[in-house]
Design goal:
This protein has 229 residues and is mostly helical. It has a single domain, classed as Rhomboid-like fold (Up-down Bundle). 61% of the residues lie in helices and 4% in strands. It contains nine helices and four strands, in the order H-H-E-H-H-H-H-E-H-E-E-H-H. It is globular and about 50 Å long.
Length: 229
């Protein structure tokens, strides 16, 4: 990848550089410099009805990545590798302006749609409990909504994966893990099925499977509008 990076189209190259620089800043800038908090505290996206939420986070969250936890390196590496690998082809196919619009729309749309789903969860729970008996924010699903934060380019990246699979459905991809070859359209189908299962089962906490699906949905709507497949 490094040897080919200088030949990467401009938008993809700049997006990768920005994401890596923000990740490094979040990793190494002392919390004391930022009011006692890690950089991600300020640029992650929070639920709209909390004190930590700020409107600019709708954009900034998609340029931040995990700085702690077991998958800290996997998070940034997977997203940047997928952005470089699939985004480069799409940018050359669509052009810089259309590609950038699509990427940002999927990332921002994923954040907004996830927040909308969270709002629906809160409202559903609020309508099914007796507030005189139990406070809503003490309940499991709602507690998760109120106290979670979301970072990552995954919503935008999954939008790119969908676009690649729909634009080049029969292109054969040779995966590193697992070491198999399959057509792009089948990879997208497998990803959608996996994300749906993980979202419904709740098996993997701390990973935004709903945001992944949201980015794909936004991408599908845009592609349908463009008639690009």
């Amino acid at each position: 990848m490094l040897g080919s990076f200088k030949y990467t189209p401009d938008v993809v190259k700049n997006l990768v550089i920005i994401n890596v620089l923000v990740w490094l800043a979040a990793m190494f800038i002392p919390a004391q410099v930022l009011g006692g908090f890690n950089l991600n505290h300020w640029i992650a996206i929070y639920y709209w009805d909390t004190a930590n939420f700020a409107p600019y986070q709708i954009v900034t969250h998609m340029f931040a990545h995990a700085t702690s936890g077991s998958y800290v390196l996997f998070h940034i590496l997977f997203n940047m590798y997928a952005l470089w690998m699939f985004g480069s082809i799409l940018e050359r196919t669509w052009g810089a302006k259309r590609f950038l619009f699509y990427y940002l729309a999927c990332g921002i749309g994923a954040g907004l749609l996830t927040m909308g789903i969270d709002t629906a969860i809160v409202q559903y729970v609020a309508n099914t409990i007796d507030p005189t008996v139990q406070q809503i924010n003490t309940l499991g699903p709602v507690n998760n909504v109120y106290f979670k934060s979301m970072v990552g380019a995954s919503g935008a990246v999954y939008g790119l994966l969908l676009a690649f699979g729909m634009t080049f459905p029969n292109m054969v991809l040779r995966l590193i893990f697992p070491p198999v070859a399959l057509k792009a359209k089948y990879l997208v189908m497998i990803l959608i099925a996996f994300e749906l299962y993980m979202s419904i089962s709740g098996s993997a906490t701390g990973i935004g499977h709903v945001a992944h699906l949201s980015g794909m949905l936004i991408g599908f709507i845009i592609l349908k509008t463009w008639h690009k497949f």
